[in-house]
Amino acid sequence: MVEYKPQEIELGWQKKWEEAKIFEVEKDPSKKKFYCLEMYPYPSGKMHMGHLRNYTIGDTLARFKRMNGFNVLYPMGYDSFGLPAEIAAIKQGTHPEITTRKNIASIKENQKRIGYSYDWRREVSSIEKDYYRWNQWIFLKMYEKGLAYRKESLVNWCPGCTSVLANEQVINGKCWRCSSDVNPKFLSQWFYKIREYADELLQGLDDLEWPEKVKTMQRNWIGRSEGTVADFAVEGTDKTLSIFTTRVDTIFGVTFMTMAAEHPWCKEFVKDTEYEAEYLEFYEEVMEQDRYKRMADETEKKGVFLGKYAINPLNGDKIPIYAGNFVIYGYGAGAVMAVPAHDQRDFEFAKKYGIPIKVVIQPFDGFVLEGEKMSRAFIEDGVLDKSEDFSGVENRVAIDRIAEKLKEIGKGGKTTNYKIRDWLVSRQRYWGTPIPMIFCDECGVVPVPIDQLPVELPQDAVFGKTGNPLEHSESFMNVSCPKCGKAARRESDTMDTFVDSSWYFLKYTSPKLGDVPFNKEDVEYWGPVDQYIGGIEHAILHLLYARFFTKITRDFGLHSFNEPFKALLTQGMVNLPHPYCESCNKFLPKSYNKEGNWTGEYNMETETCNTCGSKYILKSAKMSKSLGNTISPQRIVEEFGADTARFFIMHAANPVKEMDWSDAGCSADNRIMLKIWDLVNDIPISTRDSVDVYDGYIQYRLHRMIRNVTELYQTMLIRDALNEIIGFADVLRKYCEMVPNKQLFGQCQETLILMLAPIVPHMCEELWHLKGHDPYVSLCKWPAFDSQYINESIELRWQCYENVLDDVKNIQKLIKIEVPKEIQIIIADSWKNQFTEETLSMIKDGKNFGDLMKNAMSKPDLKRYGKQIKGFLGRISKNPGKFSVPFPNQEEEYAFFTENLALLENDLGTKIIIVKETNSDNKKKDQALPGKPALSIK
Ligand code: ANZ
Ligand code: ZN
C-alpha cells in the first residue's frame, strides 16, 4: 500500500499550485463571486495558533466555495505599521522597517507552509508607500469635505505608548495595547467625523449577518439617545449651557446645575473669585481619579460651587452651578440640569451639600411625596406637580409638550444625542502614515497638494530621544509652504494604524493601481466581503472604523455598497489546559518552570503551588506568551504535517467555539487521517459488478454525507462536517469487508476525497492523483446529492436501521456481553402502526396522556391490548420526537430487515434472526413498536 508522506506531498503540491497559478483570480462577470477574508495580521514574527485557526477556517471556506463554482477572491496582507516595531527600534537600534520586513517574511513563510489558497499577487501591506499614500489621499479628501478637522480637546494620553489614543482604544480606563492607565490631556489633535455617520452606522447593523453580541456592542458604543436640549443662560456672563436631558418633564424640579470638572468654563467662572482655590483643588483631585470609575454609580458624588447661577428657561429660577465628578465632559453639553427629587445621583449630591429637593412628579397611586422626607429619588412615572401649566399632565406626555414649549420660545427642543465621539486619528509616533499637513506661520494649516503625495517617512529619523522621532528628522520637518513658498514645518503626527485596516479589504480588489485607491469596476465586482473571519477583540475598534470608511469612500463615489462585511464569524479562542491553583486563584506562572516555558511536562501528582502548597488542577488558559503555554503551529507541521494541523484545529471544535489544544488529540486525528488514506487507497480483495439490496445503505450514507457536509460547510459548522465525513468512512470500511459493488465503492472513495479536500488539501490532491485523475482536486466540481437515494421516507427507514444498531450496542454494554451468540429482532404487529401514527398526531395537537388513553380504550379492537398500550403511551408521550412510523405495516418492515440481513450481521458481527411479533413466542415481543423492533440478545 502507498505510504502517507505528508512532508513530501505537501511541499510538492504547494509547488504545483504555485506554478499552475490555480488560485490567482480575475474578475469575471459571467461567474458568481465570493469574497472570503480573514483579518490581516499584525506581523509580530511567527504565526501562532490563533492565526492557524483563523486562516484554516477561511481557507476551508474559500476552497469549498471554489469547488462550488464561485469565483473566489481570497487574499492575504499585513497590517504592518504599529508601535512594537518602533519600540524594538528604540531598544535594539534596528530601523522599524527592517524588523517589520523580516517579520512579514517569516509569517508569510509559515502561511505558505500550511498551504493556504491565497492569491498572493494581491498582497497588501500598509507600510508600502503605494498603500499609505491612499491613506493620505483619503485624509485630504476628508479635510476638503470637512470630515477631518483639528481641534484642541481633552484627549486620552497613554504614557506607555507616549501617544494619544482614540476613545475606542481605551478599555476600562486602560490602553488597549499596553494596558497603561490612560490620562486626560488637553491637546490639539486631528479627528475624523465618525459622528456624522452615527445614525447610518446604527441602522446598517440590522441587516448584517453578524454575531448578535458584536452588533449589541456597536449599538451601545454608538449610544443613540433621544431627548431634549434646554438652554440655561449663565447669569452675569454671555454664556449659555445647552444641556441635554432625557427627562425634560422634570425641568421645574431643577434645583442646581452640575458641570464636568474639566469643562473649560469652570475655570473662567471662578477666575479671581473666592471660589477659585477650592475649585482648582477639586479639579486636581478629579483628574487623579480614574475617569471610568468616577462615573460609576457607587462612587461618591462630589462637587464644589462655582459662584455662578443659571436661569431656568421656563420659570426663570436662579439655580447654583457646581462642578462635579460624575458628569462626562464631551457628552451632551458636559453639564446637567440636576433634579434631586427624580435622579439618584443628583439626590445624593443634593443631600451632601444641603441643596433643596423639589418634587415635581407625584406617584399615580395618590401618595404625596415631600422632598425633605425622601430617602431616595423617585424615578418612576407619575403626574406632574408644581410645574405651572403642565401640572396634572402625565410625565411621559409632558416630555413632548415641554420640548415643544422650549422650541416655541427659542430655548431648545427635541434632539438626538450619541455617545460616540469623533475618531481621534493622530498619533505622536513614527511608524505610521504621515498626516499630509503643513503648518505655515503666514498661511496657517495648509494641506499637502494631492500631486505631492505620498509624504514619505524619512530614513533619518532618530529613535530613542524623547517625543516623536519624526520631530527629530530635519529632512522631514522642513518644507516650503505650498501656498506662499516660505519656510514651513510639517505635521509630525502620523495616523492611527486603525486607519490602515479600515479599507485594506477594498484595496485587495485592485492592489496594483497607481492613480486611484482602487478601481471602481473591480471593487464593485468583488465587494463587499461575503465572509469575514477574525477575533472578537475587534468588535468595536476595527469593525466600526471599517464600516465608517466604507461609507466615506462610497460617498466619495468610489463604489456603491454600504457595508464592508456581509457576514462575520468571530472565531473562538485556542486554549491549553494549564496548572491552576484554586485557592490562590491563579495559573502556574511561567517562571516556575525551569526552562521558562510550560511544556506540559509538569508533574501534576508531585508538584504543588509555589505560594500556598496546594495541588494544581488543569484549567483551560488562553495560549499566551505570559503563561508560556504557547504551542507553535510550526512544531506540529514538522511532526505531523500541515494537513494534520489543519484537520485537528477544524476537528477540535466548531469555529465559533473555544477549543483546547491537545497533542494527544492531534496524534489521534493523525491516525484517523491515516486510516482514511488507507481506505481510499484500498483495493478490496473481491468486488462485484452486480447490485445488491444492501448497497442501499451505503448509497444512503453517501448521499446523506454529501447533503449534510454541504450544508455544514455553508453554515461554518466545520467540525460537524468533519464528523459526518469520519462517520461515513467508518461505514465504508465495513462495506469494504462485504464484497462491495466495484463502481459504488470507487464512487464512495472519490467522494470522500472531495469532501475532505477543503480541510486537508494536500493529502486529497495526492489521493486524487493516485486514483488516476488529472490535477487538481482543488478545482473539481463539488458533488451534488441525488434525492433518489435520500428523501424523507428512505431516511426514516435507515434511521430505524441505525437505531437498531445503537440499541443493540447499548444493551450489550448494559448486560456486559461482548460477542452475543444470537440476536433476535422482533418486528411489531401491524395494529401498532396505525395506533402509533394516531398517537403521534394527537400529541402534535396538544393532547395529553389521559386523552390518548381514553381515545385508545374507546376502540373495541384495541381494548384487549390495554396494558401494553398504557406502557407505549408512556414511552411515546415522554419523547415523541424519537418515534416515527417508517413502514406501513409489519410485512414491509419485516421485508426491509430481511433484505438487509447480511448487512446487519456484518455490522453486528453475529447471527441475527428476524421474526414477526405475530410469529414469536419471545417474552420481549410485546415491546416492539413500529420502527423500533424488540430485541432479544443471547
Ligand atoms: C435631567 C434628568 C432628570 C435626567 C432625571 C435624568 C433623570 P442618556 O440616556 O445616557 O443619554 N446627562 C446628560 N449629559 C450628561 C453628561 N455629560 N454626563 C453625565 N450625565 C449626563 O442619559 C441622559 C441623561 O444623563 C440626562 O437626563 C442627564 O440627566 C444626564 F430625573 O437630565 B438627565
Ligand atoms: Zn504659507
From TrEMBL:
Gene3D superfamilies on file: Class I aminoacyl-tRNA synthetases (RS) (3.30.2320.20), HUPs (3.40.50.620), Isoleucyl-tRNA Synthetase, Domain 1 (1.10.730.10), leucyl-tRNA synthetase (1.10.10.720)
Domain annotation Aminoacyl-tRNA synthetase class Ia: ranges: 419-574, 621-662
Xref: SUPFAM superfamilies: Anticodon-binding domain of a subclass of class I aminoacyl-tRNA synthetases, Nucleotidylyl transferase, ValRS/IleRS/LeuRS editing domain
Keywords: Aminoacyl-tRNA synthetase, ATP-binding, Ligase, Nucleotide-binding, Protein biosynthesis
GO function terms (MF aspect): isoleucine-tRNA ligase activity
HAMAP family: Leu_tRNA_synth_B
Protein name per Swiss-Prot or TrEMBL: Leucine--tRNA ligase
Species: Candidatus Lokiarchaeum ossiferum
Lineage start: Archaea, Promethearchaeati, Promethearchaeota, Promethearchaeia, Promethearchaeales
